[in-house]
Amino acid sequence: MQVLKAIRVKHWLKNGLVFLPIIFSGRLTDSHLLLVSVISFFSFSFMASAIYLLNDIHDKDADAQHPRKRTRPIASGAVSVPLAAALAVVLAVLSCVICGVVAVQSIPALSVVMAYGLINIGYSLKWKDIPVIDVTVLSLGFLLRVLFGGYFCGVAVSQWLCLSILAMSFFFALGKRRGELRRFGSSMRPSLEHYTVEFFDKSMYVFMAAGIVFYSLWLFDRMEGSMEGSLWMPIVLSVCVVIAVVVCLRYCLDIETNASDGDPVEVVFSDKVLLASVFLWLIIMIGLL
């Protein structure tokens, strides 16, 4: 149980982004492609868990002094450093092997997952202490997940989808940092000493607006052919946009009013209305595409 906690299986939810290329391409009903996409999910999750382990090893002493992070398996001593290091190596190698054997476009997929690993190693060692750079690295991680899913399955990712994911990634990354600053203060990490809540608020809403615009442009462009002669399609697409707005605003409300550190996964699971909104959006999008 402690090992599963150390590799943060709960945070694999973020890696669900690898499914977006086949969902948004309308090929979710292709059983072979769906199986390949599921394999891509585990491949990326293994690399992500390897990075989580390395990060927790590096921050072991600091986490041990933190009021919340001291309960993490490595910081508390429940999982030893040698075991965590060995597990990280095994998971990283397994991730790369799966890419090489199963991925439709193995070289691009392998390049993306290795880039994710290298970028996050740099983040763990130094970049997380540099303001703005820390948020940028977190945001790139979400975009790389989508690109990885596309390359792994051999499905093209549109430019509007890339822009939508990137903008919303910045929105949620800034929200995470805002939650940390508001809940724990600047002592949690060095980069927070240079931030203010006002900076996060202004930056978050810029990226939220951009993300919703990019998503709307992608959605109406993608379904343009289906709207011809249809009375209901424009309404359904508008509902999708409204639900996306509700999800963003609900997330903002949660990090404003609740004792949350802003982590999107934690916020989604702690808010039933937000969780239901996300599932409703997914169901409608899958039905449309």
Provide structural commentary.
It is a single chain. This protein is mainly α. It has 14 helices and no strands. Helix 10 (197-222) packs antiparallel against helix 12 (233-257) and helix 13 (264-270) packs across helix 14. The radius of gyration is 19 Å and the shape is globular. The mean pLDDT is 86.
Quick structural gist:
By secondary structure, this protein is mainly alpha-helical. Helix content is 74%, strand content 0%.
N/C terminus separation: 38 Å
The general outline is: globular
The number of E-state strands comes to 0
Poorly predicted spans: none
Radius of gyration over all CA atoms, rounded = 19 Å
Strand content: under 5%
| pLDDT averaged residue by residue | 86
Main features:
14 helices; 74% helix; 289 residues
Topology (elements, then pairings):
Elements (H helix, E strand, L loop, with lengths): L1 H5 L13 H5 L6 H28 L1 H5 L8 H4 L4 H22 L3 H20 L7 H21 L5 H26 L12 H26 L1 H4 L5 H25 L6 H7 L1 H17 L1
Helix pairs in contact: 3-6, 3-7, 3-8, 6-7, 7-8, 8-9, 9-10, 10-12, 12-14, 13-14
